[in-house]
Amino acid sequence: MFKLFRYLKPYWWQVIILVFVTTAQVYTTLQLPALMADIINKGIVVGDTDYIWMTGLAMVGLAVVSAIASFVSSYFSAKIGACFSRDIRTAVFTKIMNYNMDDLKEFTTASLLTRTTNDVNQVQNATMMILSMMLRAPLFCIISIVMAIQTAPDMSWIIMVGVAAILGSTILIMSIVIPKFKMFQELFDKITLLTRENLTGLRVIRAFNNEGLEKKKFAKANDALTKLLIFIDRILELQNPIINIIFNGTTLLCSWVGISLLSKDFAYLGNMTAFAQYVTHVMMSFLMMSMLFVMLPRANVSARRINAVLDKAQKIVWKSRTNGQPEKTASVEFKNVDFCYPGAEENVLEDISFKAVAGETTAFIGSTGSGKSTLINLVPRFYEASSGEVLVDGLSVKEYEKADLMQRIGLVPQQGILFAGTIKSNIKFGAPNASSEQVHKAAEIAQAKNFIEKFPDKYNAHIAQGGTNVSGGQKQRLSIARAICKEPDIYIFDDAFSALDMKTDQKLRTALKEITKSAVVLIVAQRVSTIKDADQIVVLDNGKVVGKGKHFELLGKCKIYQEIVKSQLSDKEYAQELKHVKGVRHA
Predict the structure, then answer these.
(1) Selecting from 1.10.3720.10, 3.40.1110.10, 1.20.1560.10, 3.40.50.11810, what CATH number does the domain 2-310 have?
(2) Residue range 491-504, pLDDT digits in tens
């Protein structure tokens, strides 16, 4: 956990103030028992009223100073703890945002959510406790012991007995519960995972009438977490009665020993009273430290999980600035590219080579699992090629600064992702400075204008998180509009027309031609009709290029492409296509 304390560096001056006021609080508080002893010995026993008043007023003044110091101490510990946790959350979020796809696979989404929220809260609570207790409790304890021994040396052995009893009970309890804290975090991750999974997959669960099964899975995990929490709480709750027994026992022991000493010297009354208060402070100090010992192990588990995220070395390292001069004309080129997922034995892509140039559409088609989406994910460096080179505008993607490469690319993923906000904010997501005219034009090209105009608020209509209040086709068209509004040099459509009907698909592709005359267009598609007019079609099979050319060229020479086309057309339509192939050959 102490590794995370580097995030306290910006608040060092506040920590110094906290140390100062905590010391002042401890000093003023521990002067009160000594003054009370003086009132008894030098005021009440002697009958000196003036001394009683003067010393009493001094005690009131010290009590006020102690209260003010306590308030300031609490304020700064709370403020530093809140800012500290804010900075850690920001650091974790920033780190996650810079992860590539392989990095994200090492942590589940549920685990990352828990680490960013619950784990950071555990560390924050422990830090606040450390800031308020770590200095205060030892100071109280050490100074109280010293002053108690000075006040009544004959009774000092009582403190040692009480301290030994508290330490023994705390060590025993901690040895039982510390191993359970890691189990708690893992089970909490599982609860988060099941909750997220059920919320996102609610339609499928209901469609297959599996609510009962999912409830049983959740109940099993929930019961396991509940039993673990009950066990931890039962053990920790033992600490309170044990501390009370030790505390009350020590007080009784002080009274018994003190009374026996009073029978010899009545002037010992003030010293006995002060000693009892010092013993109380010692016991309270150890009680505070025991609370700290309870929180620290749990926070330490959380801190290790946070550090695992922060310390993970990124597999893809970006340049601080682009090395080299990209060509002015947009292009994407693959040179003998291989790709293998970490831990996999076989390549997903093997010896991929092609070049896509500005003003032309390059399409990718193949059976499911042939590597189409993986291939285009190499362009924005979501994954890193195992070997070979991926070039954007004539320059290797490894030589680009991240923002420089991303601003050249407009990506529409397989599943349209929308963010909570409005239609306008989603379209402007990649171009925040875009004008209303650009937004409207992008929506029109994406064939989204008609359904947008039907909303009462039109472009200011609310979009729920994940776009749950719009249909799949509408979500896809808004995702396409977002890419168009960015006006990139390279458009990547990863099966982005699958939710569109044939008529809308045709209109959209026709409109795209007008705005992509100087841009590279990469399309992954399952439907032949979507890519039929592409300038270059790359056919993939098991991660290899088995055909490259235009529609009718491939239909005449590529067996895999023939099978794909035949599977999507009737026998009559396929025969007509083959006639056209023969006509092209003769021409």
Answers:
(1) 1.20.1560.10
(2) 888 877 776 777 77
